[in-house]
Amino acid sequence: MEKAAQLALADRLLDYIDRQTLQLSDEVYRQSVAEYTDEQQAARERIQLFRSRPLCVGLSGDLPTPGYQLTHDASGLPLLLTRQQDGSFKAFLNVCRHRGARVAEGAGDSRGFVCPYHAWRYGLDGRLVSRPEESSFEACPRDDHALTPLAAEERHGVLWVHPTPGEALVFGEEFAPLEAELAGYALADFHPFATRELRRDMNWKLALDTFLESYHFCVLHKDSICGIFHHNLATFDTFGVHFRLVTPRRTIAKLREQPRADWNLLPHLVVIYVLFPNTVLVWQGAQVEIWQIFPDGKDPSRSVLRLTLYAPEPAVSDKARQHWQRNLELVLHVVENEDFPLGEGIQRSFSSGAQPHIVFGLNEAALGHFHAAITEATQS
DSSP class of residue 335? Predict the structure, then answer.
């Protein structure tokens, strides 16, 4: 985030603190409970949100060196992410073109891929290099049986994939200012410390909703993070369907003791970007978190979440590993023991018939924006 943008944001936040307010919506938003429970809605989302749009699948550091490969299955598709020998990023479907077996597992250095079923061999670039008993497949040219490529781009440290073969990555004009802002974080320089995959009994949007307001901080999180952040206080800015929330730490008061020209705002914030439809990028302190949140199969009451915590430097010493492990455990403690159990209870309550809709108040502007974008994308 550029210095001028930081100063303008600091002015807004300090003004909100003085007036004990926050960025308000124009009106209360009523969201149908069916969005979280209806199987037809879930089917529309799978097509319109998770097969028809660019998806963020991580940061550059997930593929640290030429020849590195990473499998990614949280989306429900078998994705294979690769760092080519020339340093470029390519993605494929992790599917052998012979009988459909997976050709790779996990992550690590690779010169290519060998199918464990019949030993068809593929290069790192996806080309079919060799196969046993070649004469039996003369009618099936190798060039026609390469791994299925997916459109993939690396933009300012963020890895993007289009999940449907043959479709191009298209970013709207509104994405340009958001991308320019993300570039200021030098995300390509961050290193993955750990990845955790979580499965929960709640709709994927309920999992994402918990990131979109601080109204609950000093109620649900009274014994964990309440003392760190200002309660029910945040800025909210949109970039088309994408958006940014900024919540100040209580330490922001220290800025008042310094000349304005010397202000360094970022250490006093948690900054949350939602990369529509399902990725939450969190910047706080010296770390970055990427939450990729997907439906878990066809059941609208199930979700899968892929969390990766990134550090500014590789954790090579015991001290560094212990530090980042503590940070990871705090993040997981808050969501696993506080946010998500409550969300699962909400999911169960939706089947009770208690209410046809839930309410997002004026102080929950991001929630209204997010769900309006979901409705527009899936009903149009």
Answer: I
Superfamily in which the 55-170 domain is placed by CATH:
Rieske [2Fe-2S] iron-sulphur domain (2.102.10.10)
Closest listed residue to residue 92, CA positions, set 121, 71, 118, 76:
71
Task: Reduce the DSSP state of residue 145 to 3 states and report it.
Answer: helix
Query: Is the CB of residue 61 less than 8 Å from the CB of residue 184?
Result: no
The full DSSP string for 33-96 is THHHH-HHHHHHHHHHTTSSS-EEEEEGGGS-STTEEEEE-TTSS-EEEEE-TTS-EEEEES--
What stretches in the chain show pLDDT beneath 70? none
351: three-class secondary structure by DSSP: helix
CA–CA dist 85, 242 (Å, integer): 33
pLDDT of residue 1: 76
8-state DSSP, 225: T
Task: Please state, in angstroms and rounded to a whole number, the distance separating the CA atoms of residues 223 and 237.
Answer: 29
Q: In what order do the strands lie in the sheet with 107-109?
A: 107-109, 68-72, 79-83, 89-93, 149-150
CA 335/CA 353 separation, integer angstroms: 27
Q: List, for residues 239-277, the tens digit of each pLDDT value.
A: 999 999 999 999 999 999 999 999 999 999 999 999 999
CB 338 within 8 A of CB 220: yes
CA separation for the pair 38, 34 (Å, rounded):
5
Q: Where are the domains of the chain?
A: 1-53+172-380, 55-170
92 DSSP β-pair partners: 80, 149
18: number of Cβ within 10 Å: 8
Residue where the block lists tokens 């900054």: 271
Instruction: Please give the pLDDT value at position 172.
Output: 87
Query: What type of residue is 201?
Result: D
Give the strand order in the sheet containing 158-161.
55-59, 158-161, 152-155
Residues 6+ apart with CB under 8 A from 236: 23, 243, 244, 245, 365, 366, 369
For residue 4, the model assigns a pLDDT of 87
Domain 1-53+172-380, second-level architecture: Alpha-Beta Complex (3.90)
